[in-house]
Amino acid sequence: MFHEGNRALQDEFDSRALADRLVEKLRRDRFTEADAGFIAQQSFFFLATADAEGRPDCSFKGGPPGFAQVVAPDLLIFPDYDGNGMFKSLGNILANPHVGLLFIAMGERAGRLRVNGRAEVVRDDPAMAGIPGAQLLVKVTPIDIFPNCPRYIPRMAIEAASEYAPAPGVEPVEPKWKAYPDFADVVPPRRA
């Protein structure tokens, strides 16, 4: 789980034994029921990807609670929704399948869960039929799953779900920027 750069700093700060103990006690490569429950409650996470040359990108992924789902001990899925059409994250996954996901719960029951693994972008998966608004599906096979201490998570509350989050039987709301003169003529039609 650690490379020479990690180890050099662990040795400089005399934290190698602590790092090894944290891995020994907390790291896993399969989702637990508690992990699945925590992820199912979240309405967002951060997705880190890198292209074939290792240039990083970090993206916010949001939707209704449960849009990211643990469907097996060794598999997490999440939909790709209509966005800005740049496909930075998913394009990176096509070039380099290594990903990092960070789930954060804010508020009184703060918590964090990291999931590092390998991802694939899937089209026409039967699971997409049950996910309103899904235009693609991302499947993540975990390599390292581990919680982080929540002590630096600010105490914040989510006031309302995004009006853009897909919901069954609800017509999607188009963001205003897609109608701006600078973009309107190149915005493709939304895929069904």
What report would you give on this structure?
The protein has 192 residues and is α+β, with helices and mostly antiparallel strands. It has a single domain (25-153, 167-186), classed as Pnp Oxidase, Chain A (Roll). Helices cover 19% and strands 30% of the residues. It has helices at 4-12, 16-26, 33-41, 88-95; strands at residues 44-50, 56-62, 69-72, 75-80, 98-105, 111-122, 136-148. It has a 7-stranded antiparallel beta sheet. Strand 1 (44-50) and strand 2 (56-62) form a beta hairpin. The longest helix is centred in the N-terminal third of the chain and has 11 residues, at 16-26. The protein is globular, with a radius of gyration of 18 Å. It starts with a helix and ends in a 44-residue tail after the last strand. It holds the Pfam family PNPOx_N. It comes from Phenylobacterium kunshanense. InterPro entries: Pyridox_Oxase_N, Split_barrel_FMN-bd.
The ordered string of helix (H) and strand (E) elements is HHHEEEEHEEE
| Shape assignment | globular
Mean pLDDT: 94
Task: Please tally the helical runs, counting DSSP H or I stretches of 4 or more residues.
Answer: 4
Low-confidence stretches: none
Strand content: 25-35%
Computed structural class: alpha+beta
Number of domains: 1
The radius of gyration computed from the alpha-carbon positions, rounded to a whole number of angstroms, is 18 Å
**What's the CATH superfamily, by name?**
Electron Transport, Fmn-binding Protein, Chain A
What is the annotated CATH architecture? Roll
Task: Give the strand order of the largest sheet, numbering strands 1, 2, ... along the chain.
Answer: 2-1-5-6-7-4-3
CATH topology: Pnp Oxidase, Chain A
**Biggest sheet features:** 7 strands, antiparallel
